[in-house]
Specification:
single chain, mainly alpha, 13 helices
């Protein structure tokens, strides 16, 4: 997979709007929020305050993600593939996406019931892949001169996806394990993952991931030592620090909302002619509102479905249990969402929706 510079319009204005939105909407707010939380956690640790949060604060980002950016960022999947291919969404095109959600999501939901531990591992792997996809896309939009090589791109995907999925394990192993334990406990099973938090296992994983991070950044630097590489390196180091010092559930919840989801929303704006026009004429808020309008119906359906599952299953109302149910629900939606995004990657790379500048 080679680097691509995308554009939606023959005059390049679509590419310009997309890059501007990725910086102002998809990146700058995330840098501010993540940087502030990282600095605050470092300062509190330096003065000897343990990195603990009250339950209300710990689960707040996940609760917010129900309605703001998190869950809604996937609620435009029925429209996005056709738009990415430069076509107007139709009944059949939306039905295909709906059928994919029914088949892939339904199969994964059944797999959770039968094999929750394996499903939990699959969820971590899927999220690793998907969040790596999202950051790779953002780097492409912001400039990708250092990401022209196949191995550099693969390494970048693995590093960016692994930062939220693996790094919290190194500093907060028991909290990391407790979150996954809660997923499996929903199905009346116990997760025997003592090996995962063992010091030698974490040390081995840490050394390997540091080597992958350094090797990938060095490969990118050799390809291009320009501003775009420096942005990539700065973000990578910021996220390393963030996930090492901020308590994991809170850190991942914030990242889900303000980092990953916002960048995907910019992608949705980029393939929607109406949203791009709104951004050009009235600014990013108008484009966000338009995309939010597209996401509202299926977000509402998803929230109602989640509440229905909780009521029918009679789950405990403890915050950790509700958070576990929500994350398993997200897992079921993630598999078809990854299929849609992967299809969009291929479509856009082939220039069906945006003209590819490099192949």
């Amino acid at each position: 997979m080679e680097g691509t510079h995308h554009t939606a319009d023959a005059d390049g204005s679509g590419e310009t709007i997309r890059a501007a939105l990725m910086y102002t909407v998809g990146s700058r707010p995330a840098w501010i929020v993540v940087g502030t939380l990282t600095l605050g956690s470092v300062v509190t640790a330096a003065i000897g305050v343990a990195p603990t949060l009250p339950p209300l604060v710990r689960y707040l980002p996940l609760a917010v993600s129900l309605l703001a950016f998190g869950l809604p960022h996937g609620a435009v999947d029925h429209l996005a593939p056709a738009r990415a291919a430069g076509r107007r969404p139709t009944g059949p095109s939306m039905a295909v996406v709906g059928l994919g959600y029914l088949l892939f999501g339904g199969a994964y939901a059944a797999f959770w019931v039968v094999a929750p531990a394996a499903s939990a591992a699959l969820f971590v792997g899927l999220t690793w892949l998907h969040w790596g996809q999202g950051d790779l896309y953002a780097l492409d939009v912001l400039g990708n001169d250092h990401l022209d090589g196949r191995w550099t791109r693969t390494g970048t995907l693995l590093v960016r996806g692994g930062l939220p999925m693996l790094v919290p394990l190194f500093r907060f192993p028991e909290r990391y394990r407790s979150v996954i334990d809660a997923w499996v406990a929903l199905f009346g099973r116990n997760l025997d993952a003592t090996w995962l938090v063992a010091p030698d296992v974490r040390l081995g994983l840490g050394v390997a991931f540091v080597a992958l991070t350094v090797g990938t950044l060095l490969a990118g630097y050799r390809s291009s030592g320009g501003r775009d590489w420096r942005r990539d390196a700065a973000e990578t180091l910021l996220l390393w620090a963030y996930f090492l010092v901020v308590p994991p559930l809170f850190a991942v919840g914030v990242y889900f909302c303000v980092w990953h989801s916002l960048r995907h929303v910019v992608r949705l704006i980029g393939v929607d002619d109406g949203a791009r026009t709104a951004a050009a004429a009235r600014g990013p808020t108008a484009a966000l509102l338009r995309t939010g309008r597209d996401a509202t119906p299926l977000t509402a359906v998803s929230v109602l479905l989640l509440v229905g599952v909780a009521v029918v299953a009679g789950v405990d109302t403890a915050p950790e249990t509700l958070a576990a149910l929500y994350l398993v629900f997200i897992a079921v939606l993630t598999l078809p969402h990854v299929v849609v995004v992967t299809w969009m990657d291929r479509t856009e790379r082939l220039g069906l929706g945006w003209r590819a500048g490099k192949q």
